[in-house]
Amino acid sequence: MKTKENNILEKIFKLKENKTDVKTEVLGGLTTFVTIAYALLVVPNILKLGGMNSLGLKGDEAAVLTIANDPVVGSAFASVCIAAAIGTLIMAFYANMPFVLAPGLGLVSFFAFNICLKLGYTWQQGLAAVSISGILFIIITLTSIREKIVYAMPHNLKLAITAGIGLFISLIGLKSGGIVVANPATLVAFGDFKNSSVILTIVGLVIMAVLMARNVKGAMLIGIIITTIIGIPMGITKLNDVHVFSLPPIGNTFLALDFKGLLSHNGGGILGAILTIFMVVITLSLVDLFDSLGTLVGTAQTSGMIDENGEAKNLRKSLFADAMATTLGGFLGTTTLATVVESAAGIAAGARTGLSNVVVSILFICSLFFSSLIGVVPSSATAPALIIVGVLMLSAVKEIDFSDFTEAVPAFFTIAMMPFTYSIANGIAVGMIFYPLMKVFTGKRKDVHPIMYIMAFLFILRFILMPD
């Protein structure tokens, strides 16, 4: 018998139409949150290295500051939670899609290490640049430019994006679980299989893989919980110094944008400053644009969330929600909000509507009051989920037409450059550069949409002017 609450949820989120139910959406939301929760601690720690702390320290000097002992770092944590919750709710109610909006680690790192450390902007000036890029996003979304870019992308390139993201997510999981480590001689190598964290990652991977193979509902979430529990006697799941209730300071980073300082940076006058920050804003915009597009297109293709034209469902609304959230992030005191790739974990667990996002948003807000509990789930427990998602998404590669070399080359570079450069945007950029090159020099220029030429030129310009 249907309850009144179920009828309301059905009306808002169209659960039957999307072939899902409340239980599946809740499980999907829980899976996504547990998979992305690590970012709530990682993001403020990266931001503090760029100077977002009460002492203005940068780099290694700021490493000792924590959420607990520094009001600005604590406020940065609060900003991440609140901005992610609001952005994710916008996606839930406006687009009715299960894509979580939160600060992407690639963009956070670019903000801290490039904008603040390398170029010397303060974090307040950096937030102003983030907001400008968000406003630019809103404009190009309202004019359908972002949507047109998606439609202009060839089918094989979209499939390659899905497969590339799969490899990229797997690499993140393998790295965070210690199975793959950096090696100065070979770039990457196996980790130490005698290390208890690595052992736990492998145990979790086996558990999750078996549950997935047996089609157990909520397999990823169950696997994460079981692995976390196994980690307690192994000493990996840390329960000491956990406070049931803790609330960080709020407000030190809210509305802290410094537009005046941004425009007068380095004393070059308004025109000089605009020219200086132009590539910063463009880079933020391009990376966010193609990180988000890659996640939207890639996960939609894998999960069947496509419309009658074979494109991602509610694409325009999803892109507009992303644009709104990006602008909001800067004003709330955190970096660019993007459609995070970890959303794929919840989608793989069955999430198909914005209801799962509501669950994630509630948990983001709850995290404000239980910040010390966020770190309980070890990376060894969430890493297997990312690896499994990679397995699911890599299946798109079988549909790519490798018999046509002009299609195969850009598809290959799209797939390979995502994990090899640790960036979804870089993979898409290289693929979009090679696609028109291959077609033009083989007499197939009619296969190329005019927008592809424009994007290839912009990416080449971006790599020349700002290679980092």
Automatic annotation (TrEMBL):
Keyword Heme attached: no
Record's GO cellular component terms: plasma membrane
This protein's UniProt keywords: Cell membrane, Membrane, Transmembrane, Transmembrane helix, Transport
Subcellular location: Cell membrane
Residue ranges of the TM segments: 26-47, 72-93, 100-121, 127-145, 157-181, 193-211, 218-236, 270-287, 353-374, 380-397, 409-436, 448-465
UniProt main location, coarse: membrane
InterPro entries (UniProt xref): Azg-like (IPR045018), Azg-like_bact_archaea (IPR026033), NCS2 (IPR006043)
GO MF terms, alphabetically ordered: purine nucleobase transmembrane transporter activity
Keyword Hydrolase belongs to the record: no
Name the UniProt record assigns to this protein: Xanthine/uracil permease family protein
Organism in which the protein naturally occurs: Clostridium intestinale URNW
Taxonomic lineage: Bacteria, Bacillati, Bacillota, Clostridia, Eubacteriales
